[in-house]
Structures are given as structure tokens and as C-alpha cells.
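Re: the 238-residue chain
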Amino acid sequence: MTASSFRALHHDRAAGDPLVLPGPWDAGSARVFADAGFPALATPSAGIAASLGYEDGATPPAEMFAAVARIVRAVSVPVSADVEDGYGLAPAELVERLLEAGVVGCNLEDSEGHATLKDPQRHADWLAEVRAAAGDALVINARVDTFLFGSGDPADAIARAKLYVAAGADCVYPLRAPTEILPTLREGISGPLNMAAGPSPDSVAELARHGATRITFGPGMQRYAMGAIGDLAANLRA
């Protein structure tokens, strides 16, 4: 599937029928999700970091791109990659690394150091450069971190989202936005809206009811799997 085909999956969806993208953290988990019939996958940077023995945000870029490339090689469905804030790479180099890894999309967040929001116009200008370098070859999911590191004001999130969409983002991802304000965000933001679900059907269904058009899971699936392995290890040890 090309980026254009992946992009099309985000549009003309029936109400309550979001695009659900599981989050593989390695080749094995990617195969499980692909074999289950999901049309595409979206890697979580925190999940991959944990699988490689790093704290969230501390994975060296070369290791992140290598891990993503292994996931891509393991499955026949398209993969979008969470590459945090772009690792300080110039837009052209970032796009080159993503395409070399074989992905058709990427998450790019508007905070740095997992602590501070970027200036929205400066970030929008950078996203526009990424779009120019990528052309139609990447679906850009622009993460909005105002609910993590900002005021949590929906108006701020909407203002940032409008800048990012105008700069060429295909989708907007207001991470940690409360579910109850999703209709407000849906009304103010044009185009697909990504929300993060917990690893359960009920969580997905709730976000679908409130208007999410794309659902990802962050590191939730990796943590769920590790919890299950922890329970198994405890039982075996006992």
C-alpha cells in the first residue's frame, strides 16, 4: 500500500467507524497484529524504546529507525512510525530516513525534551518543510501536546491544529485530550482526528462514539503484553 492509499483510509469513514492502528514494538508483535487483519500499523516510540531498553525519548535515532525498518520488513501491511520530534534532523534528512525505513507515515510532536511546547508557528513552518520534502510520500500525523505540557485549553489545541493542517499535516493528534472535549475538538479541527485509546475494545468504542477518526494506542499494547508476561513469570516463579 502506498502513502496515498494509506491516506485514503483516513477519509470518508462512517460515523463511529474509526481507522484503528495497533502499535507494534518489534517484528513479532507486528506480525501478530497484521495476521489479525488490521489494514495498517502505527509504531509507538515509547513502546520501541522500552523493547530496546531505553527510557521514553532516549532511544538513539539510528536504533529507532532500525527498529522501525525491522517492523516494516516483517509485515505486508503499511506502517506509520512515531519519530517523536524528528530527532533534530533537517526535514530532508528526516524524510530520507523515514522512506529508507519503508514507512508510509509518521507522527511528529510539537514539544521538545518531553517537557516544553514549541512555538506553534515555528513548528508549523518546520512541518511545511517536511511536507515539501516528502511530497505525497508520507502521511503526517501532527501531535499536539497542549494537554501534556500546556494549558489544556481546547482553544489552544485547535489553534495549533489549524496551523499544522495548513502546513500540510494529514491528521492531528491531541494527545491526552479528555474524551469529553473531543466533540469540541472535532468541531474546530478539519480533517482526521487521531486519539489514543487504551488496549481494550471499550476504550476504542468510546472514542469512536465521540468522533475520533483514527485511533492509536501509544505504548499501551506493549505495556499490556509486558504485564501479561509479568503475571506469567510470577506464576511460574511461585
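Residues 91 and 130 are 5 Å apart (CA to CA).
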